[in-house]
Write the structure tokens for this entry.
Amino acid sequence: MTNNNISRRTLMSAAALAAASLGAPALRAQPKLEKKQVSIAVGGKAAFYYLPLTIAEQLGYFKAEGLDVEISDFAGGARALQALVGGSADVVNGAYEHTINMQSKNQHIQSFVLMGRAPQIAMGVSTKAMPNYKSLADLRGKRIGVSAPGSSTNMVANLVLSRAGIKASDVSYVGVGTAAGALAALRSGQIDAMSNTDPVMTMLEQKGDVKIISDTRTLKGTQEVFGGPMPAACFYSHSDFVQKNPGTCQAMANAIVHALKWLQTAGPSDIIKTVPEGYLLGDRALYLASFNKVREAIALDGMLPEEGAKTALKALASFEPSIKPEKIELGRTYTNEFARRAKDKFKA
């Protein structure tokens, strides 16, 4: 073989490699993963609150980013947070306000991609247990179901009650989860009222089991309850984890923003085909009615608005004496750095 032939072949190989790299920009942009196996804790995975997580998992978006995720489902957000604090989870898919709560206890955790731009939590009274309900004052001394004590469903209930001068100690909170157990708890009379997510609340509402008294499933309802935009579900972890694993956090943010983009154009049949059958709670039509109710509450691009962080702090401080707004550094509770890059990647 002549030197000319070797040179020609070398040049052709180099050209082919260059063409291949140009044709695969996603591969060149793939973040370097410090940690490929990631354990995620979530509190009530079947709720619409966590739908972007389920979509990213079911459609293989985590795998596409080189991640092997293990998702552990807990009864509520407070339990998922405990898993992070206890070291059995790397990341939590949970409510943003936990980052503020934990900072008030000198523990720094940080949100790095937003999934919900409204809490999607409704509060209702049982039409069977409280047929003569007239005002919030009637709830004093009653049993109120929440996904788990200390979770975001509990926080919304505290906020709603505080506006009527009712303290958390004036009622009894009962953990009922976010699925079939929550339906059973209300229908069997174990609780008098409930603060919970969809599809549970829409199912109870449409069957006439509850009368809704506060609703954050829409942007308008959220504005009425909180007085501003209220960030909800997000991925959060210890600030140290986010700093030490930027590539892994970027890959996780990429998967979620990819899912958020898919959800913007997904039709009802797409959702039904993608989520596990058990999530439908035996009623497809009601599940889809619930989805239509919360659809606008799903984040669009993973970015957490500064105004939303301020709303969350104001809401928490209104009923939680231990939270002093002047001592909270909101800038340390979230970062939009990863969501911004993911947004560029998927043009979300």
Q: What stands out?
A: Residues 3-23 form the longest helix (21 residues). The two ends are 52 Å apart (CA to CA). Confidence is low (pLDDT under 50) at residues 1-28. The beta strands are 37-43, 68-74, 91-95, 109-114, 121-126, 143-146, 172-175, 193-197, 210-215, 233-238.
